[in-house]
Amino acid sequence: MKLFVYILLFITTWVTVIQGCKKQNELFPGEDSLSYTSAEAIKIYYSDSTQPFPILSAFVATDAEILKKHSHNVRISSDTTKYLINRMFRTISSFEGNINGITAPEIGINRNIIIIRRKDKTGSPLEVFINPKITQHSNASSEVQDSCITSPGVFPSYITRYNLVSVDYYSIDGSHHSELIEMETAAILQHEMAHLNGGVLAFTVDPLAFTGTEIDTIMADTLAMRIYLTTSYSDSLVLRKTSVNVRPDSTNAVLIRIINRMRLSLAASSGGVGIAAPQVGINRNIILVKRLDKIGKPVEVYLNPRIVNTTYKIINFAGDGCLSIPGVTKTTVRFAAVGVEYDLLDGTHHSEIIEGYSGTNFTAIIFQHEIDHLNGILFIDRAL
Ligand SMILES: [Zn+2]
Ligand SMILES: [Zn+2]
């Protein structure tokens, strides 16, 4: 009786083991979520392991679709994983200048593999993190300037990253690590981790933040900015574009710089009483107005200004002119007074009625002229 029970138990165990094996065989190596699909394998093995991968572009619809997908874990020490990582190292090394990281989705493989530059280690080596997971983060965060190889020319002036993150990951030899990573390297890691969750910088950029191209133009030097002219076709395209808001922030070096440079551009003009950011090639809602209605006639800065109401009284203003259309003056149709709303650099929001349409005080006209610029409208459009 006892023997029979043992035999039965033995048989049952084997049946279980065999079923287990069958289950494994069904899934491995072909189809479990850790295995590469044939489409992935084709991409990975398309070139020999010394060849870099092409980088996807956030601006190409079919690429963006891949970039927005969530990625999956991989079987760590598989030959395909090793081959893929080899080519990813080749890819990052093929860039001129120091690229801080690359992820598998950026080369079209939605898999949890990232390579980051370890700024926290001597010589800033590139290291691979397989199936990484951020398990904890600090409360403290910092604003960092970020950029991405999939979105060239697009980067926000600030993006918030945790100062310290705890990350679990595997190395290519299969060893498991749990590490605390700080500051710059932590910021790089968080950028790359965002890719694994389908995050793409170009789509998460704060629309109020300056773009990379804007930052490059504004920060290029400290001198007066060139005035865009209607006589140039490419300039006129900028002048005719609708501008977008900025984030009022007295600590934003880029915002301060463009305001200072616009002041210089206005001062360099003969008799200019106002200037708008599109006139210096930046389609942002920033204007400078010489306040003819104030003692000392100060040049003041208004961010995101808009006209919220107008008088019934319409006047013909003789002698309207523009820095972007030198040598031309015309009589324009304007409101006698306007109600405006705007932000100041310190982040405060204001509402004000602006008066003055003739003689030594035509401040209401200046506001209308400059706010028109932000909407791509020139004074010649308002001429009689
Ligand atoms: Zn990126
Ligand atoms: Zn103008």
Can you put this structure into words, describing what you see?
This protein folds into 2 domains: 38-204, Peptide deformylase (Peptide Deformylase, Alpha-Beta Complex); 212-382, Peptide Deformylase. Strand 2 and strand 3 (126-137) form a beta hairpin. The strands form 4 sheets. A 5-stranded antiparallel β-sheet has the order 1-2-3-6-7, sandwiched between helices. The protein has a 5-stranded antiparallel β-sheet with strand order 8-9-10-13-14, with helices on both faces. The protein has a two-stranded antiparallel sheet with strand order 4-5. It has 10 helices and 14 strands. It is of the alpha+beta class. Residues 1-30 have low confidence and may be disordered. The longest helix is centred in the first third of the chain and has 26 residues, at 2-27. It binds zinc ion (ZN) (2 copies). One zinc ion (ZN) binds at residues 322-324, 369, 373.
Tags for this entry?
384 residues; alpha+beta; elongated; 2 domains; five-stranded antiparallel sheet; Peptide Deformylase
How would you briefly describe this protein structure?
The protein is an alpha+beta fold and 384 residues long.
